[in-house]
């Protein structure tokens, strides 16, 4: 006694749907990578601005800062 009729699978359709999902996710990954890159670039800009402000607030000349950094590196 059969328990049910086995459903026919359209393999080509299933494969196409999977390929479409893969494409969608790849596009999303690319978009997220671009967003990450932009955020890192903005972070670097903010850090540079903060550094320039700290240097300006210190009142030291470029030569004095260079000497201080040289001493720290040794």
Overview of this structure, please?
It is built from two helices and no strands. The protein has one domain (11-73). The model has no long low-confidence stretch (mean pLDDT 92). With 74 residues, the protein is an all-alpha fold. Helices cover 81% and strands 0% of the residues. The chain has helices at 11-58, 62-73.
List the keywords:
74 residues, mainly alpha, 2 helices
What pattern of helices and strands is seen along the backbone? HH
Q: Which term fits the overall shape?
A: rod-shaped
Unreliable sequence segments: none
List how many beta strands DSSP finds.
0
Number of domains: 1
H/I helix tally = 2
Question: How large is the radius of gyration?
Answer: 29 Å
Strand content range: under 5%
Ends: how far apart?
Answer: 88 Å
